[in-house]
Amino acid sequence: MDIVSAHSFAIMAYKTAPFLEEAVQSICSQNSKSSVYITTSTPNERIEKIAAQNNIPLHVNTGKAGIVGDWEFALSCTATPYVTLVDQDDIYHPDYADTVIGLFKAHPDALIAFTNYVEIDNKSMQRDINKTMRIKHFLLFPFLFKNSLKSRFARRFILRIGNPICSPSVTYNLPALGGPHQFDENYAMSLDWDAWLRMTDKTGSFCFSRKPLLKHRLHDATQTSGGISGGQRYQEDLQIYSRLWPRFIARRLANAYAESYKTNL
User: Fold this and answer.
1) Looking at the 3D structure of the chain, how many domains does it have?
2) Could you say which residues of the chain have pLDDT below 50?
3) Which of 69, 103, 146, 184 could form a disulfide bond with 64, CB atoms 3.0-4.6 angstroms apart?
């Protein structure tokens, strides 16, 4: 199976999408050609123009609203087993697709494959490594010894103190996962962390490349920044910590995690 029939980039566009052209260019500049399409629940002239200029199919979500609906719609539009959900603000290294497909080939049981990343600002300049990034790097230390974790214990271990997996860096193995319905509508900010935790109950492995193959953009307009400042992120994180720890420990961890995320604002 060649990569174009194995892997898709689903580029999720929203409203004015100021950085969409950069995201699309990074996808179209991959060293190996994957299938590419754009999805949106807010169709407009700008998104339609970028799709047409790059000869990329555009799918409009007229069904379930919200982030869960948008993410699952994007997954459902694929014709390939492996799908990457692309954030409209982010930039992918040309080796990204080759790397994640290589991980799936080496570990056919993998449920997800993801990569390291760096953070950039709204001018595409790399941000300094902050407290949040240091915590995430630490949580992934089991991958220092191998690029795949198979046991339920090991996969849950990396998720017990926080969420070190950057969701736009993740490629999903949909047949192994059982389809596109992977997210819980009770979460709007921590839906990815919740999904990774539930995936640990499935048979299969998590794969990771230590190469930073994604530039993840943080700026004031992102939903993550809004959720942090509004306190929604804290409440959702506390719910997840409470599934993993006694309540008094969960609250302390949630407080510490919230403090570290202030570096995103």
Assistant:
1) 1
2) 225-227
3) 69
